[in-house]
Amino acid sequence: MQIDRLIKETRGAIDDVIPGRRRAGLPPILCGDFNAEALSDEIRFLSGFTIVDGTSTAYQDSWAVAGSEGPGYTNDWQINPYAAALNVHRKRIDYVFAGDPFLRVGSAGRVLSAEVVADVALTGIVASDHAGVMVDIVWPDRPD
Questions:
Q1: N or C: which end of the chain has fewer CB within 10 A?
Q2: Low-confidence ranges of the chain (pLDDT < 70)
Q3: Residue 99, CA atoms < 13 Å, CB-side half-sphere
Q4: Contact, 120 vs 79, CB < 8 A?
Q5: Residue 58, class by beta-carbon neighbours within 10 Å (0-12 exposed, 13-18 middle, 19+ buried)?
């Protein structure tokens, strides 16, 4: 809840919907290792599926919107020896959240695709117990 408050305070009125006008710019993007599964209260709050302390918000969970295939596990003991050593079940705990694309010029913020990456040890060594999440998000006014 605090991260959502901070994002809204930092961005100010840039994300406000004004009747009859399209919104410019890219919505906020929030990503990282949340160590929380999709049905947890904190992820449900960020995804707009629950209210916490009378507050709600809504970001797009990129995997839920456009995940390439499967459950999107980013912590998977079956393919990652570091995750296997933790002795925990397979889970999706890393996320890319994109803010609301509603009425944005050029469909800015629309999530086009999401895939789990860095989940295969090409050299025999994995960098982390987590895989990554790569997401394509529309950004029509991207600076050169």
A1: C
A2: 144
A3: 20
A4: yes
A5: middle
